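Q: My labmate handed me this sequence with no annotations at all. I'd like to see what the chain might look like in three dimensions before we decide whether it's worth expressing. Could you predict it?
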Amino acid sequence: MGMARQAEPAVTTAPDLGPGKGSDGRTRQRPLALCLLARPEVGVFLGAVAVLIFFLITAPAVRDGSSMANILYQSSTIGIMALPVALLMIGGEFDLSAGVAVITSALTASMISYQLTMNVWAGVIIALILSLAIGLCNGWLLVKTGLPSFLVTLGTFLILQGVNLAVTNLVTNNVATDDISDMDGFDQAKVIFASSFDVGGVQVKISVVWWLVFAALATWVLLRTKYGNWIFAVGGNQGSARAVGVPVTFTKISLFMLVGFGAWFVGMHQLFSFNTVQSGEGVGQELIYIAAAVIGGCLLTGGAGSAIGPVFGAFMFGMVQQGIVYARWNPDWFKAFLGVMLLGAVLINLWVQRTATRR
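A: Here is what I predict for the chain of 359 residues:
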């Protein structure tokens, strides 16, 4: 029998559907609604609006200007730390020591200032150096050992938690630091980290302004700088990023140091707001920061997310936390709301990711 002839492709002519009406999937335009939902911050924005409307209806006290200022304040204390945590997650890592690192920073500044009778600013600067060093240590261990960030930062979490309690008790013979409100430099530092200003008869905390400033800066870095491209690259595929010349080691370590900076800033806010610090606080806050970033559209696998999404995620947390109080419900319901929001955000992010990649 002779060899079978290779079948030649049939030549067909596609019907002319007019300009812009081709049926080729590669050129088909997707609906605008799907394009918008593919943005990681759109889903959490809609969720934040829904939560706000819900509490405006169920808790009339939320409609008062002072109540809204308090909600924004609670959101800012979460949101300032959620921003660097979100950038770290976009870079493919996360930090379990972020919560206790805030307290470590505040304790350091307080005890350096009080026990050594130094100007408050000396304690603030030393606390900044220590916070950056903790981030540097986390990042260096990660890139040098190849261990998962979960293990590295879990170890740091346990170390800092123990050190916070033990050193505070050793130095002050108490579980809290001494009041530093009458020390040199306190008033000037309080203006920067914990002051308030009047807006239409409502007192607004300066932390709300810092929160929005940091969010704008983080958005600019992610979308307009080479460093932002590096963050997405190392989070998406570390090997490919290194192959095209991205400084993976520098990017990873610097992201952990950014978390350290955020911990320092929030720690200074807490110190100058309350004049003293409880050494056992901070445990569990790292989960709040991570959850705010996840609700804001950051994937645990890295390579996707934004800085605006965690802003809305933090606002949802502040809204629920204070809204439950204003509605006069049992505060224990906050954890239940937190779990519902987190699971809902993960499911929505999964659906958005599949929709965005669907041909």
